[in-house]
Amino acid sequence: MIEDILRRIDQRLAALDIKESRAAKLAGLSDSAIRDIRRAANRGRKDAGVSTRTLEKLAPVLETTVVWLVSGEGPETEPKNSIDRKLRLLRPDLSETLQDQFDVLIDQALEKQQRTNQ
Fold first, then answer.
1. What is the pLDDT of residues 48-70, one digit of tens each?
2. pTM here?
3. Cα angle vertex 88, ends 6, 76, to 5°?
4. Are residues 85 and 46 in the same domain?
């Protein structure tokens, strides 16, 4: 499992022509974050893994999704003009809050549309 995730991370690093330390820094992680995951996996540690939070930070930098990194399913690349991707890169601390607010607005719009159609 962890080897598959690392292989997909390497695939995206190569596609973007970016070093793992640079990708980790851009994601707000330590510059050795990917290397540390790789080392733990190479040592055969049974607890070797990567947190969802780390993948959530790396995915936008690698222009992909957490789902693709973990499973290889879905599109490998995320559209470059994705507003959410840009927000996660620029202000990861606001991304979740704004997504929650966006979800509320969508729900309100859907409810209003349903009332109008009745």
1. 678 888 999 999 899 998 999 99
2. 0.64
3. 40
4. no
